[in-house]
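=== How it folds ===
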Amino acid sequence: MDNWSDIFAPLIGRILMGGFFLWNGIEATLNFPNTTAAFATLGSPSPVALALIAIAVEVMCGIFLIVGLWSRVAALALVVFVVGTAFLQSGAQSPIQQALFLQDMAIIGGLLYVSAYGAGAWSTAWKYKQ
């Protein structure tokens, strides 16, 4: 018999993690000029292209995590994305920046867990494991 941690915990975890990235991607899309300006302040050669790539990664991988489709690959892609953003934004050493960096490390930990153990129950991959 399956218990709560086998059935519902992975689903809720995927919805929360995927929802976080989906929400950020939608917000970045709605505030596209600000998103592009943020990449421009980092000195990137093509801030518009980088903003579009970042939005695509967050939205697509967020949806993949929520649905449970290619969740291991999506989680690894988001690990690379979060590592990149964490180190790009870690220049200032204010307490707020340190807290955000540690938050990013916690998100990476959760994503690594998904990449190692998969989507779990209630995902598109679950029916093939039974």
Observations:
- The chain has a mean pLDDT of 86.
- Residues 4-30 form the longest helix (27 residues).
- The radius of gyration is 16 Å.
- The chain is about 80% helix and 0% strand.
